[in-house]
């Protein structure tokens, strides 16, 4: 086998991998040691679809490895430095998922402001038919929204919210060329200037806890926080405290620490909209991600330049 597919590749993607390559499948990096040494030595590329850490220990078991092709734009599970130190390239799937992740971010922000979950429960429970009053919701248009991390997805979110008549503020490491969106020097300054915040950072040690207790406090009691990036970017204890004690009006969350075993405190809250990491989960986008991952593997095996290398 040239290619080892690790993780939860779906049936259609497995079939496409089988059509394109000589491929073997395992559930996670922990299963690597169970593969015969001779078979491991043949592996030239890994197709990776997992949140489990992949690093030096795994690379040592694959001496012929030249590429880890990640299924996803976020590659924080992969030890890129350890890979590069062994001459192993890493690729990801940027760009093809921006629209879907941005759509979900806007949907979560809208859902919290308009109380979509509560209103649907009101209808389903018969309260509407019974004439029980439902409290008024809040307006999205006119809100000052701070985008934390104006990368590809952050930009797509900002464009959508600008079209919804929101005022766009952002923090990035450097000021960017934008249609008049306001750059702020720190995440705290962004929170001070914004009504709501949408987190679109990369995950990993550099951004861990960047939405700190202080940032959440600066957003304030009328603020809504949306996170579609990684759970690690937010101090989750501080977020839960603020949601429970009125320090923040609400939150829309697609990502969490310890997914999928999320903190049960979230499930007790009625001021949140929660999704099980569904940002890129449409048929169209998942097919495009799988295709780009395969195209990177094919390029590597043919000795061509990778389409979307990391680093
Ligand atoms: P991107 O274009 O690389 O943007 C990443 C953002 O993170 C940029 O704003 C960048 O800052 C910032 N950043 C990078 N390194 C940083 C550091 N060391 N310190 C502080 N900020 C840093 O990535 P993208 O394609 O927009 O994707 C962003 C993330 O979304 C992914 O990494 C992934 O974790 C997440 N995601 C989630 C889903 C989902 O299903 N919910 C789906 C896809 C992606 P600058 O602007 O200063 O460069």
Notes on the structure:
The protein folds into two domains: 3-94 and 283-301, 3-Layer(aba) Sandwich (Rossmann fold); 98-274, NAD(P)-binding Rossmann-like Domain (Rossmann fold), CATH 3.40.50. It is of the alpha/beta class and 311 residues long. Helix 9 (213-219) links the parallel strand 9 (196-199) and strand 10. It is built from eleven helices and twelve strands. The mean pLDDT is 98. The radius of gyration is 21 Å and the shape is elongated. It has a seven-stranded parallel β-sheet, with helices on both faces. The protein binds NADP nicotinamide-adenine-dinucleotide phosphate (NAP). NADP nicotinamide-adenine-dinucleotide phosphate binds at residues 73-74, 94, 97, 101, 149-154, 172-174, 200-203, 206-207, 228-230, 254-255, 277, 279-280. This is Lactate dehydrogenase. InterPro entries: D-isomer_2-hydroxyacid_DH, D-isomer_2_OHA_DH_cat_dom, D-isomer_DH_CS1, D-isomer_DH_NAD-bd, NAD(P)-bd_dom_sf. Residues 12-310 form the D-isomer specific 2-hydroxyacid dehydrogenase catalytic domain. Keywords: NAD, NADP, Oxidoreductase. One of its GO terms (molecular function) is glyoxylate reductase (NADPH) activity.
Give the helix/strand layout:
Elements: E1 3-7, H1 11-20, E2 23-26, H2 37-42, E3 45-49, H3 56-60, E4 67-70, H4 80-85, E5 89-91, H5 98-114, H6 116-124, E6 144-148, H7 152-163, E7 167-171, E8 182-183, H8 187-193, E9 196-199, H9 213-219, E10 224-227, H10 236-245, E11 250-253, E12 272-274, H11 283-301
Parallel strand pairs: 1-2, 1-3, 3-4, 4-5, 6-7, 6-9, 7-8, 9-10, 10-11, 11-12
The structure holds NADP nicotinamide-adenine-dinucleotide phosphate.
Family: Belongs to the D-isomer specific 2-hydroxyacid dehydrogenase family.
Pfam families: 2-Hacid_dh, 2-Hacid_dh_C
Protein name: Lactate dehydrogenase
